[in-house]
């Protein structure tokens, strides 16, 4: 639709607390279309292209209610919107179905839609019926977001946390292409503040491509900023949207001086539904482009290469994880298919050139996380070199000290997994960037210090960008005192970790806190590799596997017997992990 959606920025005067379950929350199985009435549906092929400003052709009606009906009027066909269908199953009860990422059958997580025709004070119950994650922060207190246009106009109140009777539960199994998919539901009750208002509901604070463009126009039109910030187009996405890169550094007295500066690379929004990454990025840019002495020192010391939105197509159409290739871009940094994955191909190429020209001190990709609270980092783990292993942990530890009520060092992980080889973090590390991280901000909030049990606001997320800059100054301080202090603390922490590993209770039961044990934001194993259209072509050309002869099978028999007598992979991995951990702390 052509509607231009704009939301005011607002932060509550007091932190918004997590929801406290009462134990009385209902977990009803979906009634479906058979027992309800479809009141909104975009199931027909409505997608034409990934661009802002509305469709150039006629728009088909997607709302199916009478003029005098008291039923809610839904809409999601605006930038970054996501709602596939709404079914009314009671006077104030609605079952909602989210649209999977384009050209995939999964990644239902991000929601953002509009409602009208409501009654103030009525208890409306919404149930999203096709979520695919087995665990969620909604199980441990996270609340959805509500925005009222009338509240914004009359009282200057923007997005706020809302909802009661919140429950996340396993609902049913669904068979798709001979595979059984377990679906989960999220249900919550909400009261709208005004009659006949226009309201929006969302998983996280929206941050659209249009929002970024407005911000960058402000940057480009400021003569003071343009003296040290160059904005250009890195490449164009599959749908032809510009992918911007900012080069930020103070102008040296000579070309030689500029070339000797070390580099820092920061990117965000490779996953379109992780809007919290964009809010951190805006905070980072506000600090870096500001007039403070610290900002000037950063610009004097480094050359910053910043790509604020890697997946504009996915952002525009309301995807959660993938690009229009139907693939997770953060599993395809090693690709040679420039035309299918232009944004990550050009980003990797840019970093590769930088590494050959100068010392790249740090690479960081900003993300959001659905199953862990707080802010934390994932880093890499250099094999063999114990000193380097500790050094890779220094920057995240410093972050935890600068943002001690939001950033959790305990939640940081340092691993190089085979399944993550195509990520930006590991790809840049293999190019030679020793400090290569993803920084994850929770969709929920903090469990630390004076912010324990409260949601993050946009101001909180932007402050993480400020702290990132502050930590970079600490990390590169010519005075090594802070570095030495952190290294000493890390040695103590790793010794403690060894003791905990050796005394681990394998038979202990699973607790609620296990919802935060995952090191992965999402399982993207089926979103790796070739884009969808090339994958189908490859599968059609695949040759049948040649059957082995009797002699060949006999030759392989001793090898199979040997492998059967080897210890199990689980036991071998556990022993290796303990040995490695012991060696690291010696």
TrEMBL record:
- What does the UniProt keyword field contain? Carboxypeptidase, Cell projection, Cytoplasm, Cytoskeleton, Hydrolase, Metal-binding, Metalloprotease, Protease, Zinc
Keyword match Nucleotidyltransferase: no
Q: What would be an example GO MF term here?
A: zinc ion binding
The record ties this protein, via CDD domains, to:
M14_AGBL2-3_like (cd06907)
Q: Name one GO biological process term.
A: proteolysis
Q: Which reaction does it catalyse?
A: (L-glutamyl)(n+1)-gamma-L-glutamyl-L-glutamyl-[protein] + H2O = (L-glutamyl)(n)-gamma-L-glutamyl-L-glutamyl-[protein] + L-glutamate
Where is this chain compositionally biased, Low complexity type?
A: 515-529
Its chief place of residence is cytoplasm
| UniProt domain Peptidase M14: residue ranges | 205-476
- Region Disordered: list its residue ranges: 515-568
For this UniProt entry, which segments traverse the membrane? Answer: none
Q: List the biased-composition ranges (Basic and acidic residues).
A: 549-562
Per the record, its GO cellular-component terms are: centriole; cytosol
Location of the protein in the cell: Cytoplasm, Cytoskeleton, Cilium basal body; Cytoplasm, Cytoskeleton, Microtubule organizing center, Centrosome, Centriole; Cytoplasm, Cytosol
Per the Swiss-Prot or TrEMBL record, the active site comprises: 440 (proton donor/acceptor)
Q: Per its UniProt record, what InterPro entries does this chain match?
A: Cytosolic_carboxypeptidase (IPR050821), Pepdidase_M14_N (IPR040626), Peptidase_M14 (IPR000834)
Needed co-factor(s): Zn(2+)
Task: List the PANTHER family hit by this protein, alphabetically.
Answer: CYTOSOLIC CARBOXYPEPTIDASE, CYTOSOLIC CARBOXYPEPTIDASE 2
Task: Name the protein family.
Answer: Belongs to the peptidase M14 family.
Record protein name field: Cytosolic carboxypeptidase 2
């Amino acid at each position: 639709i052509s509607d231009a959606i704009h939301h005011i920025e607002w932060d509550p005067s007091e932190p918004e607390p997590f929801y406290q379950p009462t134990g009385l929350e209902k977990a009803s199985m979906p009634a479906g279309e058979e027992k309800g009435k479809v009141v909104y549906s975009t199931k027909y092929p409505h997608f034409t292209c990934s661009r802002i400003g509305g469709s150039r052709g006629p728009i088909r009606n997607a709302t199916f209610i009478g003029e005098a009906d008291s039923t809610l009027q839904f809409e999601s066909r605006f930038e970054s919107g996501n709602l596939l269908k709404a079914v009314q199953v009671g006077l104030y009860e609605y079952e909602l179905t989210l649209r999977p990422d384009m050209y995939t059958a999964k990644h239902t997580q991000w929601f953002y839609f509009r409602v009208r025709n409501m009654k103030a004070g009525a208890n409306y119950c919404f149930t999203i019926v096709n979520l695919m994650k087995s665990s969620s922060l909604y199980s441990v207190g996270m609340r959805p977001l509500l925005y009222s246009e009338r509240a914004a106009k009359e009282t200057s109140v923007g997005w706020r946390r809302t909802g009661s009777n919140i429950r996340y539960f396993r609902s049913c199994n669904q068979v798709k292409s001979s595979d059984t998919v377990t679906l989960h539901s999220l249900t919550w009750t909400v009261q709208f503040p005004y009659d006949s208002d226009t309201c929006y509901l969302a998983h996280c604070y929206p941050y659209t491509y249009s929002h970024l463009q407005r911000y960058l126009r402000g940057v480009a039109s400021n003569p003071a900023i343009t003296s040290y910030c160059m904005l250009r187009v890195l490449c164009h996405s599959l749908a032809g949207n510009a992918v911007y890169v900012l080069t930020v550094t103070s102008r040296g007295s000579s070309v030689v001086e500029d070339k000797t500066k070390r580099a820092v690379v920061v990117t965000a929004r490779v996953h379109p539904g992780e809007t919290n990454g964009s809010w951190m990025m805006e905070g980072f840019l506000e600090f870096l482009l500001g007039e403070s002495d610290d900002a000037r020192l950063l610009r004097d010391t480094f050359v910053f290469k910043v790509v604020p939105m890697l997946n504009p197509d996915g952002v525009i159409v309301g995807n959660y994880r993938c690009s229009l290739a139907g693939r997770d871009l953060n599993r395809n940094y090693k690709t040679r298919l420039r035309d299918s994955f232009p944004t990550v191909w050009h980003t990797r190429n840019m970093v590769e050139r930088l590494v050959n020209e100068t010392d790249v001190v740090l690479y960081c990709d900003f993300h959001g996380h659905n199953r862990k609270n707080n802010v934390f980092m994932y880093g890499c783990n250099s094999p063999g070199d114990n000193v380097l292993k500790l050094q890779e942990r220094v920057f995240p530890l410093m972050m935890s000290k600068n943002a001690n009520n939001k950033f959790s060092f305990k939640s940081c992980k340092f691993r190089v997994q085979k399944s993550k080889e195509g990520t930006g973090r590991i790809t840049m590390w293999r190019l030679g960037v020793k400090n290569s991280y993803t920084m994850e901000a929770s969709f929920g909030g903090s469990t630390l210090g004076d912010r324990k049990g409260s949601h993050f606001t946009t101001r909180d997320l932007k402050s993480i960008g400020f702290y990132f800059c502050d930590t970079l100054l600490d990390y590169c301080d010519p005075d090594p005192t802070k570095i030495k202090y952190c290294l000493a603390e890390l040695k103590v922490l790793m010794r403690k970790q060894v003791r905990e590993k050796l005394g681990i209770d394998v038979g202990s039961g699973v607790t609620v806190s296990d919802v935060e044990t995952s090191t992965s934001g999402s399982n993207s194993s089926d979103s790796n590799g070739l884009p969808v259209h090339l994958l189908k072509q490859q599968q059609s050309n695949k040759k049948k596997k040649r059957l082995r002869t009797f002699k060949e099978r006999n030759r392989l028999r001793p090898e199979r017997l040997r492998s059967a007598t080897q210890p199990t992979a689980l036991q071998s991995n556990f022993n290796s992990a303990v040995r490695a951990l012991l060696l690291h702390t010696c």
